[in-house]
Amino acid sequence: MIILGVETSCDETAVAVLEGTGELSPAAIKLRSNIIASQIELHRQFGGVVPEVASRRHVETIIPVIEKALDEAEVSLSDITAVSATHGPGLVGAVLVGLSAAKALALALEVPFIGVNHIEAHMYANFIEHPDLKPPFVCLVVSGGHSDLVYLNDYGEYRVLGRTRDDAAGEAFDKVARTLGLSYPGGPAIDRISREGNPEAVRFPRAFLEEGSYDFSFSGLKTAVVNYVEASKSKGVELSIPDIAASFQEAVIDVLVTKTLRAASEMDTATVALAGGVAANSRLRQEMHRRAGEKGLDVRYPSPILCTDNAAMVACVGYFQLVSGKCSSLDLPAVPNLQLE
Ligand code: KG4
Ligand code: ZN
C-alpha cells in the first residue's frame, strides 16, 4: 500500500509518502519521503503566522511539493493506494488548500480519501520511528495550538484525559519569547538560550489546577513572566534573558511532566509518549526521561522533524484508518476548531 499524506494546517506545506504491508501495526510501515516547505522565513517579519499569507503560499507550493514527495519516494501517481489530508484543526484557509488538493487527487485517481485530525496525527508520528510501540500508552500532545493529555487504548481508540483551558504550551513559548525579544518561532529560541541560563533563577508559578485535574493552564505563567520583566525594568534591575527563559521553561516542563507521569500511573501504562512541536524541546525530553526513568517507565518521542508539523504523521493516520476500513466522504469539510473527541 502507498499512502500519500498532505498537511497544510498552519505554515508548513508538507507532503509525504508512506508504504505499508496492510497489517495494523507500526512494524508494517515505512516512510518513503517527507517533504516540508516551511514558511517560517515568510512570517518572521510579522512575528507570527499571517493566515492569508499562509494560504497564498500553500496554493503556490502544494503542487511542486506533491511532485517532490513522489519523486523522492520513487513512486508515480498510479502507485497511490489512498490519499489522506488534515481537515482540522488549523487556519481554515490554509487547511482548505491541502484538503482540496488531496480530494482532487483521490477523485482523479479513483482511490479512497481519508480526512485526518491534525492532533491525532501528531500522536501517530510516534509510530513512524518506533515499530515496537504498542498501545496502551499515555501521550502528551503539546503544540502551538493544542495541549492535550491522551490515553491511547488501541489504534484509533483514545480518551482525552485533559487539555489546556487557555494558551497551548507552544503558544506560551512563542508569547514569552516575544516578551524577551527572541525571534519567532519562540519555542526553539527559548530551548536554545535556556541552555545558558539557570532554571532556578526565578521561581515562576506552576498551575497544577484542582486536585486530580489533567487540564493545563499557561496564561498565568505567561503573565507572571511579563510582570517580572516589567517590574525588573522599572526598578532598573538588569535582566538575564537566559535565566528568565530557563526559569519559564522549567515551570512549563514541571507541570507537563508531573501530569503525564500521574496519568501513566493512574492508567497503569508502562509507556509515555510525547508529540507535537513542543515535544522537540530538549529539556522536556531530558526531564521526561529522568523522571519517568525513576518510575521504570519507557519514554518515546519522534525525531524533532516529526514533532513539528509534517505530512508523514498524516499519512500514518491515513494508513491505520484505511487498514481499519475507515475512509472519508469527499464532502468532508475543513473544521478550524476540530478537537480530539
Ligand atoms: O506542532 P507544531 O509544529 O504546530 C502546531 O500544530 O501548532 O508546533 C509548533 C509549536 C510552536 O509554538 C513552537 O514554538 C513550538 O511548537 N516548538 C518548540 C520547540 N520547537 C517548536 N517549543 C519548545 N521547544 C522547542 N524546541
Ligand atoms: Zn501541529
Number of helices: 11
* CATH architectural arrangement of the largest domain: 2-Layer Sandwich
> What is the beta-strand fraction?
15-25%
Shape: globular
Written account of the structure:
44% of the residues lie in helices and 19% in strands. With 341 residues, it is an alpha/beta fold. The protein has two domains: 2-126 and 306-323, Nucleotidyltransferase, domain 5; 135-301, ATPase, nucleotide binding domain (Nucleotidyltransferase, domain 5, 2-Layer Sandwich), CATH 3.30.420. Strands 3-2-1-4-5 form a five-stranded mixed sheet, sandwiched between helices. A hairpin with a 2-residue loop joins strand 7 and strand 8 (157-163). Helix 2 runs parallel beside helix 3 and helix 5 (169-179) packs antiparallel against helix 8 (241-267). The radius of gyration is 20 Å and the shape is globular. The two termini are 28 Å apart. The model has no long low-confidence stretch (mean pLDDT 97). The chain binds 5'-O-[(R)-(carboxyoxy)(hydroxy)phosphoryl]adenosine and zinc ion. 5'-O-[(R)-(carboxyoxy)(hydroxy)phosphoryl]adenosine binds next to helix 5 and helix 6.
Describe how the helices and strands are arranged.
Elements: E1 2-7, E2 12-20, E3 29-38, H1 40-44, H2 51-73, E4 82-88, H3 92-109, E5 113-117, H4 118-129, E6 137-142, E7 147-154, E8 157-163, H5 169-179, H6 186-194, H7 219-234, H8 241-267, E9 271-275, H9 282-294, E10 298-300, H10 304-307, H11 312-323
Parallel strand pairs: 1-4, 4-5, 6-9, 9-10
Antiparallel strand pairs: 1-2, 2-3, 6-7, 7-8
Helix pairs in contact: 2-3, 4-11, 5-6, 5-7, 5-8, 6-8, 8-9
This protein binds 5'-O-[(R)-(carboxyoxy)(hydroxy)phosphoryl]adenosine and zinc ion (ZN).
